[in-house]
Specification:
There is one protein chain. With 525 residues, this protein is α+β, with helices and mostly antiparallel strands. It has three domains: 2-196, TIM Barrel (Alpha-Beta Barrel); 201-263 and 269-276, no CATH class; 282-522, Aminoglycoside phosphotransferase (APH), C-terminal lobe (Aminoglycoside 3'-phosphotransferase, Chain: A, domain 2, Alpha-Beta Complex), CATH 3.90.1200. Helix content is 42%, strand content 18%. It is built from 17 helices and 21 strands. The strands form five sheets. It has a five-stranded mixed β-sheet with strand order 3-2-1-9-10, with helices on both faces. The chain has a five-stranded mixed β-sheet with strand order 4-5-6-7-8. A hairpin with a 4-residue loop joins strand 15 (267-271) and strand 16. Helix 9 (296-315) packs across helix 14, helix 10 runs antiparallel to helix 11 and helix 12 runs antiparallel to helix 14 (441-451). The longest helix has 22 residues, at 459-480. 42% of the residues are buried.
Length: 525
């Protein structure tokens, strides 16, 4: 049974703008089975509820009950269900409990305005429940309430705290058993036979981050998807990375991705105390999965949307993070690849070091004195970080591309993202002819070049350079999976050497890496 448990009418609450008749109508229209009106320091007597029912003409199964919201000195506002007298502001909770021992007393909007109730408050025996979801909470406050409920196992309800008709019934409470009277409702709360209306799906969990998809309250027709992604970090290092990505996404959402066919999961809120980041959930299918089942025309459209997304980011020419970070961090990032290889005592470590040095030297020469050419990029662009969605299933023009995971974002050459995506595409779909028969990496590059602005003359050579750099990351990934002797390792290394040999032959590399050229020519193990 689904009930609205916290709402105010303009008849008896000066803060409300909605009449009781309208309030009941809206809650009924949203599919709830009942409503408990909780005006401030006012209790609706039975005869008034009968009149209200007649005025709205609700079904006989729809409940219209009354509680009240009482300001107490001990806890602040408390929702009282099952006390049939009006209590003035300042009434001690012990008085209410003594006079109505069977009533249910629930702490209202327990997390509002940054309030952080401690364990003693949440488990205080004078309270029968805690309102953890409330429209006057921020998203992070609602999320904090959910986490505390999971941790301390108290009885929880949700309430819309309605003061206007547009959000009536937004945060309902589910009762495990049918109820017919306010006394039965109070008894169910006291027995813990209720909980907020929500959906929680654990999407991923690792040693450093837990990712949960939440739907708080009910989804309304013609309303945006109420799903959010909650990322809780277990240590300050991963939190710092996530918080950095949060602010990058916030800036990019303002300047580049405000909607339409190119999107990002917009930041919603953050909670430094619990190391939690909250993002808007973008509904779509991962590009890798989308391409596997799509028709050829849809596959090409998806790749073109992906390329358009990248061009939109690069064309903005913003530098959210300091541009000098690119070359400052690059040696350590490339050395991460080598560390995997050294720990595995890979037999081709010397050749791979040569590749690494060629990439690093060329990057320094190209960008060391030209940080103005760097733009905010994604930094980890591959088919697993791209979502393809469709707002209207009947309208193929409503497809959109969204990109997730900005933890590697920084100011970088535009060719970085392009080279990374092309190399990842070619690696991930190397043995998937059912995909490459529909669409290719060249389709991505062609679409990007058509949309991108002010590219340098040597852009395609830069793309080749960053394809090689991405190959190093892929090889490190394979080593991490214990696949150091897999045939892919040899193929990737030879491909990287040949690409560098080509760049060397056209004078693009800083110095002549003879070892690379010789190895590429010989192709010998």
């Amino acid at each position: 049974m689904i009930m609205e448990m916290h709402c105010h009418t303009c008849e008896y609450s000066a803060c409300s703008l909605v009449k009781a008749v309208t309030l009941v109508q809206r809650v009924l229209e949203k599919g709830l089975q009942g409503i408990a009106i909780t005006d401030h320091h006012h209790f609706w007597p039975a005869e008034k509820l009968v009149e209200l029912r007649a005025a709205v003409d609700v079904p006989g199964t729809f409940l219209i009950l009354s509680g009240q919201e009482v300001g107490t000195p001990e806890f602040g506002d408390v929702l009282v269900y099952g006390a049939d007298r009006v209590y003035p502001s300042g009434t001690c909770i012990d008085v209410i409990r003594r006079e109505f021992p069977e009533a249910a007393l629930v702490l209202a909007h327990a997390y509002r305005n940054g309030r952080l109730p401690d364990e003693a408050t949440l488990l205080d025996p004078r309270l029968d429940g805690i309102e953890i979801f409330n429209s006057n909470h921020t998203v992070s406050e609602n999320t904090r309430g959910l986490k505390d409920w999971h941790r301390y196992k108290f009885t929880a309800i949700a309430g819309s705290d309605t003061h206007a008709e547009n959000y009536a019934g937004l945060y309902p409470t589910v009762f495990d058993h049918p109820i017919w009277t306010v006394e039965e409702m109070a008894a169910e709360i006291r027995a813990g036979n209720c909980h907020p209306y929500f959906r929680e799906i654990h999407r991923a969990s690792s040693s450093d981050t837990q990712i949960v998809e939440l739907t708080l309250g009910r989804k309304e027709k013609q309303a945006p998807d109420r799903k959010i992604i909650v990322k809780t970090h277990q240590d300050t290092k991963t939190w710092a990375q996530a918080e950095r990505a949060y602010y990058i996404m916030r800036e990019l959402g303002t300047c580049c991705f405000t909607g339409g066919k190119y999107r990002i999961p917009l930041p919603v809120d953050e909670d430094p105390q619990t190391l939690t980041i909250i993002e808007q959930r973008v509904k779509g299918k991962v590009l890798k999965e989308f391409l596997a089942t799509a028709e050829k025309s849809d596959a090409r459209q998806a790749i073109q949307l992906t390329a358009g997304w990248v061009a939109r980011l690069h064309n903005a020419r913003v530098q959210v993070t300091p541009p000098e970070e690119f070359l400052e961090l690059e040696p350590a990032r490339l050395d991460e690849c080598l560390d995997f290889l050294r720990r595995a005592k890979h037999r081709h470590i010397d050749r791979i070091v040569e590749i690494r040095d060629a990439v690093m030297d060329t990057e320094r020469a190209l960008y060391g004195e030209k940080t103005e050419v760097l733009v905010q990029g994604h930094g980890d662009l591959h088919p697993g970080n791209v979502l393809i969605g469709q707002d209207d299933p009947a309208d193929p023009e409503s497809h959109f591309a969204a990109v997730i995971d900005f933890t590697s974002s920084r100011a970088m050459p535009p060719a970085f993202d392009v080279g990374a995506f092309i190399e990842q595409f070619q690696y991930q779909f190397f043995q998937k002819p059912e995909i490459t028969a529909k669409v290719s990496a060249d389709d991505f590059l062609t679409a990007y070049l058509a949309e991108a602005e002010d590219l340098p003359d040597d852009f395609l050579s830069q793309v080749q350079l960053f394809k090689v750099r991405t190959t190093l990351r892929i090889m490190a990934y394979l080593i991490g999976l214990g696949m150091g002797q897999h045939p892919d390792m040899w193929r990737l290394m030879v491909e990287a050497e040949r690409n560098l040999a080509h760049l060397d032959s056209i004078g693009f590399l800083v110095r002549n890496h003879g070892g690379i050229a010789a190895a590429a020519e010989s192709g010998q193990r």
